[in-house]
Each structure stands twice: as C-alpha cells, then as structure tokens.
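G., the chain you wanted modeled:
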Amino acid sequence: MSPETVISDFSVTSPPTQPFDVENFDHFVMKTYGRFPLALTKGSGCRVWDTTGREYLDFVAGIATCTLGHAHPALIKAVTEQIQKLHHVSNLYYIPEQGELAQWIVEHSCADKVFFCNSGAEANEAAIKLARKYAHQVLDLEIPVIVTAHASFHGRTLATLTATGQPKYQQGFSPLVPGFAYVPYNDIGAIENAITDIDEGNSRVAAIMLEPLQGEGGVRPGDLEYFQRLRQICDDTGILLIFDEVQVGVGRTGKYWGYENLGVEPDIFTSAKGLAGGIPIGAMMCKDFCNVFEPGSHASTFGGNPFACAAALSVAHTIEAEHLLQNVQARGEQLRAKLGAIALKYPKLFIEVRGWGLINGLELHPDTAITSLDLVKEAMNQGLLLAPAGPKVLRFVPPLIVSSQEVEAAAAKLEQAIAATV
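Predicted structure as tokens:
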C-alpha cells in the first residue's frame, strides 16, 4: 500500500451531530490549556471530525505525534491484538515487546541501550539524570552543569522546565533546579564562552542538551557547521552531547532521527511524540560508554509496557513497509514549495519558510499586527488545523502518510485563511 493510497482505505462511521458542552468541561477540568472551541470525535488518515460532523484536514497530528494519522489499520491491528493478550506487567519481569522495540531502535540508530518511559518530558528527565550520574561517577564532578539553548523546550517537569530556555514557562515555579546554563542557539562562540565561564572551581559543563531542530522555539533547524563543531568540542573535552528528539524523531524529518540531518551522532538522545503514533510512550537512548544506570538508578511503572511497545513496533514496521521516509521527503519538499509561493505572494506578511521533512514553519513579518494565532484560528474556520510555534510562526506537522493531494488542499485552505485575515 503506497502513501498516496493509504488514506482511501479507511472507513469512518458518521460522528454525532450535537454541540459540545464547553461549560461543563471547564467546570471539571483544570484550565492548563488555552483550548480552541473545537471538540474532535473521529479521525481517518489526515482527516478529523468534530462533534457537529464537520471535517478538518489535520496538519497538527497531535503536535507531530500521530505518525500514521488516525485509525491506521496497522495500529488498530497491533493494539487490538495486544490488549487481548497482555497490556501491562511490571518491569520486575522481562517484557518481550519492550526488548523487540529496543532492538529495532538500536538497529536503526546510533544508540546501544534504551530506557522506556511515558512521555517526552520523562525521557528528557531520564537524560538529565543519566548525564548527572555520569558526571559524578565517571568525570568526578562535584557541581555538573548542563548547557541548553534559548528558545528551547524540553518539558514541564521541574528539571525539564528549568532546562527549557524560555522564561515564560518558568514563571511561578521558582526555585528552579540548579545546574543549568543557557546560550543562543546555533552560536558556537556562545557555547565556547559558556564552557570557559562555567569551568571554575567545582563547577564544570557536564553536558550540552539541544534540539536538532527547535520546535516550540519557532521551527528553527540546527546549523550543520555548528553541530559538527559542537561534536568536536564534546569529543575533545569529554562533555556529553544530548539531543532532544521528542518532536523530530521517528521519521518526522524524512530520516529516522533528526541528528541524521546534521552529520553527527549524539551520546544520548530522546524520543516520544511520534514513537507509538499517539499511544503514550517515551524513550531515552544512549551509547554504551555513558550507560551508568543500574538497578535502582531510575525506573518507570508504565514505561515499556507491552501495549505501548506493540503500538510503537507497528509504527516502526509501517514506516518501513510503506516507505514513509520517502513520502516525508517528497511531501516536505512539496509543502515548502507551496508555502514559499504563498510567502512570495504576501511579502509584507511572511519572511521565511523553514524546516525538514514534515516539520515546517512559516514565519510572519515581525512588523505585521497579524499573529500566528490569528491565522491558526482562521485556518480552522476554513477546515485546516494548524498549530503556532510562537507568536509569529505557523507550524505544519501533518501525519507522515499525508498525500500530495492533501498538501495541495492544505495550501489552498491556508490561502483562503490569509485572504480572510489580511
């Protein structure tokens, strides 16, 4: 089954046609999200339907999470078969599906070992803990420091929130976790200066933690020369290089892992969003030399359970069987070409299109009064779901199965939204 035809093979029953009770929802659920006035009930491929039966083209995909789109037959089959056998057991015992998934990841990456958890924040938390334990146990550091980038996003646990280089997310949660420093992204001089400045007394840089492409920070790809120089610095100094691949891993960039776009290998990297196509899972991978975890160092009750791992294995095997990496590359080029044409048509509104594969951003001119949120809302009115990546960047992260016709349709709906906004 080719990526172009997979969508048409889904069947969807008609969703209910009744309004959703927002007031009742808000009465019981904490308001930790600024939600759009939309309640979705059904999905098929790259399409979703709301409670009134209206159809939308989904270029959010759970924020780069629904790798195979919605209701993909392979994922349905995997989770159905697994739930009928065994959905959860403790990690006190061996879990065959977990071992099989870890083997697939190792065979398709630079990693030697895998730790499983439930989310991107947990995966990054595990990476931070591993780096600190390595710093104490191997490097004999008293006060290890992890350097991260401005505009980064690494999660909302207290440690990953501190690692996130965006003060707006940290407000109200002090005191933050000590042991972090921040530098501008893609600026090698800043990294070199930070290493020099921090390496005083009992403090020393133990790890550098970066996204190969900053997602929440505005869909900003890493610079090739920057990351290659960074790898050299880490090799020369013994500093660990950690990549947060929560948003860009598992085929999203047209390669299995984001680091493959940069020509370097990390010592530790993380994954989550797209790994199981929307079933909660997280993973932290590392090379053997820095694998200092031992029984009792770290754990997760639900991490690597049979259900989540079976789902992730079905995603992995489908990416291979349906040649989705090639589809991501082709559809990504097509999407950037369409967005580039739109940017040229509206030069006072847009300044740049950037991205890899099927994670792309369209940046608004800083002087325009229109925000990314304005366009996201109007695109929704036109039947297209998009997500902002900051106040001035539109983010496009459709399922990896998206077809050329759907990319054309999304571009047309975007133009309609722009025309209705300007």
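DSSP finds 13 helices and 17 strands in the chain.

Shout if anything looks off.
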